[in-house]
Specification:
This protein is α+β, with helices and mostly antiparallel strands. The protein has helices at 12-28, 40-44, 69-82, and strands at residues 2-7, 32-37, 53-56, 59-63. It has a single domain, classed as Glutaredoxin (3-Layer(aba) Sandwich), CATH 3.40.30. Strands 2-1-3-4 form a 4-stranded mixed sheet. Helix 1 (12-28) packs across helix 3.
Length: 83
């Protein structure tokens, strides 16, 4: 099972990233745990300069932008293959 973290304060962009990730998980019919990381200190542990951020299995996939659905599906597929 994958662990997907959404890094950010909970702004509209963070919610959009979460929505895209959830749609990708549903589309792939896989199980994933979603964690919202809103504490600034915890977010900085991932060395990102701007939110939103997306982390899959403790690996930072993107930061400071909203990824496309296709990108997220690729990242999830690769994370599953590596597990």
């Amino acid at each position: 099972m994958l662990t997907i973290k959404i890094l950010g304060s909970g702004c509209a962009n963070c919610k959009k990233v979460e929505s895209i990730a959830k749609q990708a998980v549903e589309g792939l019919a896989i199980e994933a745990t979603f964690v919202k990381v809103t504490d600034y200190k915890d977010i900085m542990a991932y060395n990102i300069l701007s939110t939103p951020g997306l982390v899959v299995n403790e690996r930072l996939m993107c930061a400071g932008r909203i990824p496309t659905q296709a990108e997220v599906i690729t990242w999830l597929t690769n994370a599953l293959a590596a597990a």
